[in-house]
Model the fold of this input.
Amino acid sequence: MHDNLHRATWIWYPDDYEIWLHQKVSVLRQFRGYICPPSWRLDAAYTSVKFRKIFELEEPELLTLSVQGDFVLLMDGSMTPIPYEKTQITSVQIPAGHHELTVNVYNDREIPAMFASGETCGTDGTWEVTALNGKWVPAASWHFDDIVHPPAAFPFHYETIQPAAITETDEGVIVDFGQETFGTVTFLGAAGRGRIHLYYGESLEEAMAGEGAETFDTLSVDSSEPLDLATSVTRAFRYIQIKKDPGVSYGRVEHQYEYLLMERRGGFNCSDSRLNEIWEVSARTLHINMREFLYDGMKRDRWVWSGDANLGFLINNYSFFDQDVTKRTMIALRGKDPVEFHINTIMDYTLYWFLSLHDYYLYSGDVAFIRSSYPKLISLMEFCLNRCNEAGMLEGYPEDWVFIDWAPMERRGELAAEQLLLCRSLEAAALFAGEVGDSEKKARYSELAAQLKETIFRLFWDDEQGGLIHGRHEGELNRQLLKYPSIFAARFDYLNEGQRVAVREKVLKNDTVQQINTPFMRFFELDALCLLGEHDHVFQEIRQYWGGMLDLGATTFWEEYDPDLPAELQYDMYGDKFRKSLCHAWGAAPIYLIGKYMLGVKPTEPGYSRYRVEPKLCGLDWMEGKVPTPDGEIAVYMDAQRIRVTSNASGIGTLKFRSHTKPSVNAGELSVVGEDEYELLLAMPSCDYEIEFGKVDVHA
Amino acid sequence: MHDNLHRATWIWYPDDYEIWLHQKVSVLRQFRGYICPPSWRLDAAYTSVKFRKIFELEEPELLTLSVQGDFVLLMDGSMTPIPYEKTQITSVQIPAGHHELTVNVYNDREIPAMFASGETCGTDGTWEVTALNGKWVPAASWHFDDIVHPPAAFPFHYETIQPAAITETDEGVIVDFGQETFGTVTFLGAAGRGRIHLYYGESLEEAMAGEGAETFDTLSVDSSEPLDLATSVTRAFRYIQIKKDPGVSYGRVEHQYEYLLMERRGGFNCSDSRLNEIWEVSARTLHINMREFLYDGMKRDRWVWSGDANLGFLINNYSFFDQDVTKRTMIALRGKDPVEFHINTIMDYTLYWFLSLHDYYLYSGDVAFIRSSYPKLISLMEFCLNRCNEAGMLEGYPEDWVFIDWAPMERRGELAAEQLLLCRSLEAAALFAGEVGDSEKKARYSELAAQLKETIFRLFWDDEQGGLIHGRHEGELNRQLLKYPSIFAARFDYLNEGQRVAVREKVLKNDTVQQINTPFMRFFELDALCLLGEHDHVFQEIRQYWGGMLDLGATTFWEEYDPDLPAELQYDMYGDKFRKSLCHAWGAAPIYLIGKYMLGVKPTEPGYSRYRVEPKLCGLDWMEGKVPTPDGEIAVYMDAQRIRVTSNASGIGTLKFRSHTKPSVNAGELSVVGEDEYELLLAMPSCDYEIEFGKVDVHA
Done:
């Protein structure tokens, strides 16, 4: 059937696939058998759309087509439908000459979508679509390229996994799959009459807790013939406690691991096996949480959170580099207009959306996505600006969640941390306005950002304390020194040299300042510390903190980890036993920190058209690894004697390193850029650059 | 189960019932087996909402509840659900004291809705609901007061109707139900194997046309035992041609008429039986089209059109006075934010929405609905104002449909008719802003309306032609004299006395001006003519024009009727045989014209708190009738000797009449207000006022 047909793909209204999918997955969260819908507005895809295509054909052409939904075919503006056979895959003849085909589709279960393919034309981005909202836009698509696979089913991959161990208990068995996993469970050869109860646990303790576990399922068996019986809802677990009624039997139990097929394009290996294991477990942690969208964690929320995703995206950039997940997540987070409330109801999470888009652009260089997101970016920014007070600052409304971090702090009034996020968001919006040619908005947002930055430092910079104070409430400054605003100011490069030193010494490395307790904010803190030159300190932290979870048997990294807690309290969170997620995307932070600050690779222009490589051994004997870019990988090796950099990507890099001895290079020309500081331009395609540190001290 | 329980009703998020229902019914239109979705955006209800209620109980109370959708019960802000039995009707115990119950509901098929009833509390407007959009609002409800009848099924009534006549044809039979009807068809005792084809016709010719009819259905029979087989989709028809395969038999065919139960609160009877029949057929026409919403016509579109509804609402006000249909229709038309396009894609139809709301308020006095509609009213008005040009006038955008009427005319540029609709809309919006206490918007819209009226008359009033010219395009005046702007200016009372005379004589009664050909615009024309004092002319028109349809066998009034067309072309429209609707709501116009200008009853203050009665016999020997108001009816009788007015409504009326003889009254005091003109204040509750015209000429 597909012979001689033009390549085609399933098409739909832009963003609607993501918005539909997001609604669908957002309501999968359950707690002990009860639904737990998210506390933010769920948007819906349009149910009624029209596709159109203008054909200029020399010969009549038979279009083979399939439509997801009820539909009608119209030609050249006529109100009278073209007849067609009402079969799953049908066809219509387009006459020679200039003709416009319109396909009206209605579907209130899945998104309206269509696939059509002829000898010379097929559904693709040259087809247009309208949601009957006054505008025609190019149709959107993904990789649904087969007429028999419409976009209703997400293209997961599956792997059947056998238990690693089965232990009998008084009441049943405990099945251990050896490590954290996600999917459904099948009982092969189940027979008899009665029920099978499954109590899932990310920890053994949780599975043993029976109805005290966060999730459980019950299957009913009623068959004298043995049959295979599977659970219907996917769950996250390592252990399952299984109890069955006496009248029920089954042959064995196995598990279908459900996952998104992704290539691990980044990698890391070094002389410290603990660090290697941390990288590996981080990658597995992220993979389990990267699916339809980038989730926070799969056991409990299974939700898309903008702040969490901001970290996840960055980690993804140094591992899988799957930008499709990022785009789907950004579209889902943004939802539809009108903007009535902050993303995830959290004021800071709205602002992280702009930061994530900025990161996305820097790492991917994908200006088309910036362009397609632009109208919604503007309406989101205008929503924020409409909520600014006379000083141009954002204060939380009574119904807003002002989060920043799980920690005690004043949340009312003008918080310095929130203004820094807003300032950075304005800068990002100004950049995007420039990229799409909206010079009026570019000027306006740049001006607002500059004013706001001036306001922030004028009001909140405290020379004596050496950092930014907490904020202002009802005109009164709150001089409390917390780490958040200083972390953000460092990350956004808003500090001058004196301020950098002050922040590093008096705030971030100051034990008397309230410590950060969440991996979420620790990510930003460690990022800031690296930016302030504290690499060795950061990588000691990684070994200890993430290593501590490994010592407790972690097979994926956790939502929260306090080394000082006794073991029996390690799974508690939000006031409930076992509520803590033991496979949480933000737990994978080491991948980002290792890639960006040990391998030292980062883009400086969108899409790695320009990038820097500044490797740091941080006490290792040797390390090697690679960092993905849109069109290739940058591989780095370093030991005490040499650095090797190989890239099959198209961008131009700058290698920077320190050396007390005089180095030599096999290609390119070294520049001295400071005392013991060298730079090498990495401009030759596919060149294996090798720098040998000399034996002679340059200062000798 | 309901014993001793507090009265309760099903509740949901405001407007979502109407928006959900509108989407559902909008896609029922079919053309010869193909779907025909509307050409405007279909909005969807929220799928995820939270209800909440604060209880202050002296004793614990058992709430009996049922929820339409998946749900979870939470108490006092806890994240841990309250357990409940998962049955259709379940219960939960509310402890004594101060407690907040939250019910999260998800439903992507019907609207999320709930019903709960205890000894002292039940779901009603004191419960609040949020769509997780940052605001809690009072929950909405209608008349779903029974826990076992959730709002998924619309509460229609049904009546089984037997055929009036069955005629055999060569290929089958023609079943005639005697008059226009709507619903499904049942074959009793169908047996055998094969198919039954039904070809529906509003006219005999259409049913006879087989697959040339607008709608047809096919039923499959496959049973050796006789069974009753019904069609699944409701259709509008009088006749059905039935053809069946030889292997199929059935006992008899009957029809389930599906309708909204409404009381005919208005009435009319007079010495002219033709006019009585016109009133009766008008009422039946309107009734068939007033269902979930006020539709245009039930055979073809089954859609809600804002301009059509503007007429339908007015007719309803003089017959059924069912304001619930009006509210549902207004909510459905308005849809959700953001406003991206005009209502029904038609620029004038957006403006009619404001006019309809104004009429609704005047006839119902329902300020609560004005208040609940206010935010959407504002966003719709701001959408219009954002599209105004520098002169403050609306020009159609390329994608807009500028309709006005089915007639040849220039549609580009600043059309006088559109500006008059906008001016009236601004006045209405200013009125509503005042009613809800938004003084800033009241001032702004009043000012804009005054400026626009000044602009309209300065640019478009043509003293020489005696009316308003057509408009201006690219700076150039279009001096064509068409009736539309003059009709609107007269209806909105924008003309001074000289202009009124000029418009009446030089425009509306001028045979050389392009004539109006649609019942839609004829309604407005006849309304304007009455306002200009041409009652006798208008009621002659009604007898002839609507009587002409009766002469052609109409049992309901049509979408269009041109007396000059030959009979065989009477069912043609939009270039297709039988596309014309023979049961079209706007065809019921005579009810409005009779009620408002013959019985002469109209509100002058919202909700008939003040009203006027100015009966006119228009050549009849006698007439009697009643006009509904929110809280009673105003009955009027008139013949050459007397007028009787009886009202059981609470408002205060003013009866005005002319008499050459000196009249006497049985109650109240007559005022002389002009030459031969008298007024009587109708202020006494339930008084039967009777005015006897005297025998003595007052001027003698």
Remarks:
- The interface with chain B takes residues 23, 27, 31-32, 34-42, 44, 46-48, 70-72, 79-81, 104, 106, 108, 131-135, 337-338, 340-341, 345, 397, 399, 574, 576 of chain A (CB under 8 Å).
